[in-house]
Design brief:
heterodimer; A: alpha+beta; two-stranded antiparallel sheet; 5 helices; B: mainly alpha; two-stranded antiparallel ribbon; 9 helices; globular
Chain lengths: ~250, ~220
């Protein structure tokens, strides 16, 4: 087979055929695997939400242990009693509201449109949890999470995750020793929705003062910590009108 | 070895020791630093590279007579990128937790210099079978080092192997911890990988002095 592989026309034809073949293979693969990938992402979200309301398999002070993937769907429908979307100070029930992407809704609000903010009501041991999603910016990329509150606006649990914070520094926001500090903190300062600040040198490294709206920062992760502070504040701002209606005064 | 001729066997064995991509050619260092804090991630990264390099070398070798030399680097890139996307999607579908741990590093396989290096230096000039062996050999050579680094970093840094505690419990002070042993947090951070690689290189060259470069 004597082909002149140096000719320009040959090069162009080769490139075109290559792109078509590779494109088809990848498109075929992506379509075939999409349902499985979507399911994995859905399970992860359910695990994160349940984690924030304290439904997990943590042992001792160690690592984050979620409800196993094969049980999470059943557990999720057991503990999550109501799925709602919030608009201003009204909330309407909506099936699978937890799948709404907060990032898109925040973009809608910025564009001046109506947004549907997801809010979940969970129940565990006869106690109600209001679970709110959060979305913000860390040092390198997006950070997000869930925070669960009771009707006194006291934090019952949080879950944080991130796309690309520095391993060993900012990435530690998803470690137990950081997330556990938020439990029991009040987001209120008097009647003001102050949120919870991640602050350095608050003279309370063991986090014994639950009324100070502060938790101890991570060394070497100032900007990620500030991102967490801002993320909580922003989220509370969005949900404040509705939270006012459920808050016990 | 009956299965392989001596020459073929050397294609696999050479990169494992005397022509190791990491310790001798010093390629692929960035991924060796980034993902070796845990043994599990090391093993998965090694297997992913094994797949990409083995299959990629064969594909390039089969195409070696039809690839226009003007765009051969681009063709190589397309082949790697395609294989990497396949690995990434399959991991996301079947090993989701793991794909989160590896996250950006699977994508980084594309830029792993070992892969482009073997395509360019070997697969473009040799038949598919030889290229396959060369790919497997180099990927194993890379994987072996990754696993060695991962083993020491996880053992000394976290006291676990594959996430299972092997030295006792640091919180309740059992096992080794009861006599005052502490995990070395330094092993978790990337610079520790450089030091472990350095020690591996030192051990290897002190055992085989022909590897030492003339100053």
């Amino acid at each position: 087979m004597a082909m002149n592989t140096e000719k320009n026309s040959y090069t162009v034809i080769f490139a075109v055929i290559m792109v078509v073949i590779v494109g088809s293979i990848l498109a075929f693969l992506a379509t075939g695997l999409k349902p499985r990938i979507d399911e994995n992402e859905r399970f992860e979200k359910q695990q994160n939400i349940l984690y924030a309301m304290g439904v997990n398999q943590n042992e001792g002070d160690g690592s984050v242990t979620f409800i196993p993937t094969n049980e999470v769907e059943a557990e999720f429908s057991k503990y999550i009693k109501k799925q709602m979307v919030v608009q201003g100070n009204t909330a309407t029930e909506k099936a699978d509201a937890y799948l709404i992407d907060l990032k898109n809704q925040i973009a809608q609000i910025k564009a001046g449109n109506n947004a549907e903010l997801p809010l979940l009501v969970g129940e565990k041991d006869g106690k109600e949890f209001y679970i709110i999603p959060m979305y913000g910016k860390g040092l390198w990329d997006a950070i997000w999470g869930f925070i669960s509150l009771d009707e006194n606006m006291v934090v019952q649990g949080v879950y944080f995750d991130h796309k690309g914070e520095t391993p060993g520094l900012g990435a530690n926001i998803k470690q137990r020793f950081f997330m556990d500090d938020f439990q029991g903190e009040s987001i209120l300062d008097g009647n003001r929705y102050a949120g919870i600040g991640v602050v350095k040198g608050n003279n309370d490294p063991l986090n014994e003062d639950k009324e100070d709206n502060e938790v101890d920062a991570l060394a070497g992760a100032t900007i990620t910590g500030n991102g967490v502070t801002a993320m909580i504040k922003e989220s509370l701002k969005l949900y404040k009108p509705y939270l006012e209606t459920i808050r016990k005064k | 070895m009956a299965l392989l001729s001596k020459k073929d066997a050397n294609l696999i064995l050479d990169p494992l020791a005397d022509n190791n991509p990491i310790t001798i050619q010093v390629l692929g260092i960035c991924s060796a630093l980034a993902i070796t804090a845990e043994l599990k991630a090391s093993v998965v990264m090694a297997l992913s590279v094994l797949f990409v390099l083995g299959v990629g070398n064969v594909v390039i070798s089969l195409l070696r007579n039809v690839i226009p030399s003007k765009i051969r680097i681009i063709v190589q890139l397309v082949v790697v990128a395609t294989l990497v996307i396949i690995v990434d999607q399959v991991l996301k579908a079947f090993a989701y937790e793991l794909s989160k741990t590896l996250s950006v590093f699977v994508g980084l396989i594309i830029t792993n210099c070992i892969i482009m290096g073997r395509f360019e230096a070997f697969a473009l000039g040799n038949g598919p079978w030889k290229s396959f062996l060369d790919g497997i050999g180099n990927a194993l050579g890379y994987g072996v080092i990754l696993v060695i680094i991962g083993f020491f970093r996880e053992l000394l840094g976290s006291g676990t192997l594959f996430g299972i505690p092997v030295l006792g419990d640091p919180v309740t002070k059992t096992g080794l911890y009861s006599i005052g042993y502490e995990n070395n947090g330094f092993m978790i951070i990337p610079p520790a990988a450089l030091i472990v690689v350095g020690i591996v290189i030192w051990v290897q060259r002190s055992r085989n002095r022909t590897l030492i470069e003339e100053a």
